[in-house]
Design a protein that fits this description.
This protein has one domain. It is about 65% helix and about 0% strand. It has 14 helices and two strands, in the order αααααββααααααααα. Helix 4 runs parallel beside helix 14 and helix 6 packs antiparallel against helix 13. By secondary structure, it is mostly helical. The protein is globular, with a radius of gyration of 27 Å. The N and C termini lie close together (about 10 Å).
Length: about 425
């Protein structure tokens, strides 16, 4: 009774300093998912690219070494992007979009002619349509963020959005690259919905996209051919395109556990572009359904982490940026895998982080760097808020360093 209470201020304030200390704030589950996808991709590119590498250079590892180089560049780029602040993009978003549009025009004039299309510059090293997918996400995320209070006014929201998408998708469609153009339009519609667009306007966007699909199918010879082959394949798999027949054959050969990595035969007997568009069929043959489920599970994990990061982002710009990047990568993966089993009409989408291709790898890694960036900024700001709240609770002294709470007084009576 009557003992004084001692408050050890140093001990109590120390956790606040720990909370405030510099932390990386990396999303570990996302990092593990990306590293695993990269490892699977490099392994399967090496296995799937023997024949095209031999045909092109006489060496079996040409495409593997090229993919390894671009993976290294992508990792460096993603690391740099991770430790910046995504909010700095607002200063360069307009020039970035302008540069992208200029590249899309240049590829039509000076692009490399391959398979009756012009999609790349510098002997296939630069593919502006891949850059356009990421840049349209960045541009629209910031544009919709600045128009939050006016987004449902058609003259301020839907019409300018349609104009931006029409220019970008139109230049890509001119190459022609139907799948990339439709991906850009789809991403624009999804971002508009996530930003809070009204259902009436979203329905209008859906009708416009449906009309564009009909135009693509009826006007462009490539679209007509792919849609006709898709319908025939649904009616009778034997009547599907040669590409799909060989892909299904590889999947059937793989069974449950696969024939073993490097031991697949379909990649040598006619399966087209084994190291790029068809790499999922090689995975199915060599690792079986188990390997396919692993790959699908990795993309589901990426979707889960990406949407979680988007939900926790500190502002609408970060939310749209994280959601847009996540949906882009998972939609690309879904389309690629769906095509290989004839669930959707044929499209030339790469399997993100797995298919060979420098532009796809660098842009995807850059996008994941942005996603990591949003997660890091969210984590740091959350910790700082917790630190400030904790300091407010444990700081018991006023400006004059005297106690700001009453102390336990000694009893006035004589000691017993």
């Amino acid at each position: 009774m009557g003992e004084s209470v001692s408050l050890n201020t140093k001990t109590m304030v120390r956790p606040a300093k720990t909370v405030r200390s510099l932390r990386l704030g990396i999303d570990i589950p996302l990092l593990i998912t990306v590293i695993t996808l990269l490892a699977v991709g490099l392994l399967m590119v090496y296995s799937a690219s023997w024949k095209p590498s031999l045909q092109l250079t006489g060496s079996t590892d040409y495409f593997f070494l090229n993919q390894l180089k671009w993976a290294f560049v992508g990792v460096i780029g993603a690391t740099l992007v991770t430790f910046l602040d995504y909010r700095m993009l607002r200063h360069i978003v307009v020039p970035l979009m302008f540069i992208t549009l200029v590249l899309l025009v240049l590829v039509l004039i000076f692009g490399d002619d391959r398979f009756n299309s012009r999609r790349s510059l510098m002997n296939g090293s630069v593919q502006p349509s891949e850059m356009a997918k990421l840049v349209i996400i960045i541009y629209l995320s910031y544009w919709l963020y600045t128009k939050q209070d006016k987004i449902n006014i058609i003259s301020f929201g839907l019409i300018p959005l349609a104009f931006i998408l029409a220019i970008t998708a139109g230049l890509i469609l001119k190459q022609p690259d139907i799948s990339a153009a439709m991906t850009v339009i789809l991403l624009g519609g999804l971002l508009f919905y996530l930003a809070g667009g009204e259902w009436r306007q979203i329905l209008l966007v859906g009708l416009v996209v449906g009309a564009l699909l009909i135009v693509v199918v009826t006007v462009f010879p490539t679209g007509q051919q792919r849609f006709a082959e898709y319908i025939r394949g649904l009616q009778d798999p034997v009547q599907s395109s040669f590409h799909i027949r060989r892909s299904v054959e590889a999947i059937v050969n793989g069974g449950l556990f696969g024939v073993g990595i490097g031991k697949g035969t379909t990649k040598f007997t006619g399966l087209p572009v084994t190291h790029t568009d068809s790499i999922f069929a090689v995975i199915a043959e060599e690792t079986g359904l188990v390997g396919c489920f692993l790959v699908v599970g990795l993309y589901i994990a990426l979707l889960w982490r990406g949407l979680t990061i988007a939900n926790k982002a500190p502002d609408m710009f970060g939310k749209l940026l994280a959601a847009g990047v996540t949906l882009w990568i998972t939609i690309e993966a879904l389309i690629n895998m769906g095509v290989m089993v004839n669930l959707i009409p044929f499209a030339g989408n790469a399997l993100p982080l797995i298919s060979a291709g420098g532009s796809s790898m660098v842009m995807t890694m850059g996008a994941l760097g942005l996603l990591m960036n949003v997660a890091r900024i969210s984590n740091i700001e959350s910790k700082n808020k917790e630190g400030r709240a904790y300091s407010a609770v444990v700081d018991l002294r006023g400006r004059n360093r005297r106690g700001s709470v009453s102390r336990v007084s000694r009893p006035t009576g004589p000691r017993q």
